[in-house]
Write a structure and sequence with these properties.
Layout lengths: L1 H66 L21 H52 L3 H27 L11 E2 H9 L8 E5 L5 E2 L1 H20 L7 E7 L3 E7 L7 H12 L15 H12 L2 E5 L8 E7 L3 E2 L17 H5 L34 H8 L9 H12 L3 H7 L10
Parallel strand pairs: 2-4
Antiparallel strand pairs: 1-3, 3-8, 4-5, 5-7, 6-7
Helix pairs in contact: 1-2, 2-3, 3-7, 4-5, 4-10, 5-7, 6-7
Length: about 425
């Protein structure tokens, strides 16, 4: 019994020590488990933050960067979603991704523009070369039906040139044509001659006798031509498109109205952006790209006039307005003595009415002699060619183009050439000539 008692005396403290040690270990493990659980929660939170930041990069920051290719890598692009990441390696890695993406976008845009500009310049060269050939053919042939076909070739060629130049302008190139000061009437006539459905355009009123300064003539003709093309394409083929000049406080305005379906809110917003947003790249012009309004906006910004498009047409369609400040206007110009070889609607008539008188509004007077088809009767030249014609024949494919005044004279003469010829070109809806 005593032996047992002695064992118990020694065993009880030992067991107590073991129990204390076990309790201490359990408490330590519990605390460690709690710390580990806290670490897990922190790591899970950090992982969620990184995942959210990565999604924010892909869904928002990169998309904003793509939308702002030409505004700079930080303009309009949101920052990190979580400010706590600022300055960390993770945030710096995301910034590097944005920089590389921006560089890739700019490189792709520049490559697209370079390729498109090269194509546009090639088209211009080919069209100008074809123009010289058409000029030569009109000099050699007298057959009225053949000349009428040449007129249509010339008109089509003028549209190819307009589209090629429009593509080049959107690619930040210059129109490349220079003219003398030109009357408002000839500006409008020259623009009409560069569109497909030119017979639907009615000139309602151009009472101002001032002229447009030479440096703005080509950009203005291109702009009005693009707006007229849009008006004819977006309205019924049997409805007219009206043009008039309105005096304004700061200068004057060319107003173009059609009787089409108008623009809804989204189309209005898109048109406004195309006209006013200089940051748009080729990829933002649609598929396929639509260069017309973008070219109008680019020319307006470069040369100091403004262009707007809205749904305020009196005929329920679209109204386009080109506002020209008085600083781009000059004194009236004297009309040319005779129409030169010109553009747009059928140039063959210009050659055949070379000696015809010209009215004060810049249009060629109707020749007295006509063919059985209603076209002006051609008289073959016997005199030596003038220096201008010699230069045209010897020039490169991008020789000096015809002027809007010349285009206006030929358009007026062609539209009066006779109903028989006009019927073969399609139903005419030509409006009342300007008084």
């Amino acid at each position: 019994m005593k032996h047992i008692s002695d064992v118990a005396v020694w065993l009880v403290p030992f067991l107590a020590a073991v129990a204390i040690a076990a309790g201490t270990v359990a408490i330590r493990h519990r605390r460690e488990a709690a710390r580990n659980a806290q670490r897990v929660r922190v790591l899970e939170k950090q992982l969620r933050v990184l995942e959210e930041e990565t999604l924010h990069l892909v869904q928002h920051r990169l998309q904003a960067m793509a939308d702002a290719q030409w505004r700079g890598p930080r303009t309009g692009v949101p920052g990190p979603l979580h400010d706590s990441l600022a300055g960390t390696d993770f945030a710096n890695a995301h910034d590097s991704v944005l920089e590389m993406f921006s560089h890739a976008c700019e490189s792709a845009e520049q490559a697209s523009q370079s390729l498109l500009l090269a194509v546009a310049r090639k088209l211009q060269g080919l069209a100008n070369g074809q123009q010289l050939k058409i000029n030569e053919m009109t000099e050699r042939h007298d057959d009225s039906a053949f000349l009428e076909d040449l007129m249509q070739l010339d008109h089509t060629n003028a549209q190819i040139l307009r589209r090629a130049v429009g593509m080049a302008v959107v690619c930040r190139a210059w129109p490349g044509r220079q003219h003398n000061a030109t009357s408002l009437h000839d500006i409008v006539r020259g623009a009409i001659g560069r569109i497909l459905d030119y017979k639907r355009v009615h000139i309602v009123r151009i009472g101002d006798t001032r002229a447009v300064t030479g440096r703005v003539v080509e950009p203005l003709v291109m702009t009005i031509a693009e707006l007229l093309e849009n008006a004819t394409r977006s309205s019924h083929p049997r409805t007219p498109v009206q043009v008039h000049v309105q005096l304004t406080h700061s200068g004057l305005a060319f107003v173009i109205e059609d009787a089409g379906v108008g623009l809804n809110a989204a189309e209005q917003e898109k048109a406004t952006r195309l006209l006013n947003d200089d940051s748009l790249g080729i990829a933002k012009l649609g598929d396929p790209p639509r260069f017309g309004l973008a070219a109008c906006g680019a020319l307006a910004r470069r040369y100091g006039f403004t262009v707007s498009v809205d749904t305020a047409s009196a005929f329920g369609g679209v109204r386009a307005v080109v506002n020209l400040p008085r600083t781009l206007l000059t004194d009236p110009v004297e009309p040319p003595a005779s129409p030169a070889v010109a553009t747009a609607a059928p140039r063959a008539e210009a050659d055949s009415t070379e000696a015809a008188p010209v009215r004060g509004d810049g249009e060629a007077a109707r020749p007295s002699a006509t063919t059985a088809h209603g076209l002006p009767k051609r008289t073959r030249r016997t005199a030596a060619p003038s220096a201008q014609n010699t230069a045209e024949r010897s020039a490169a494919p991008d020789a000096a183009p015809r002027t809007p005044s010349q285009a206006a004279a030929v358009i007026g003469a062609f539209q009066r050439a006779g109903k028989a010829a006009a019927d073969r070109l399609g139903p005419s809806t030509e409006g009342t000539p300007e008084p």
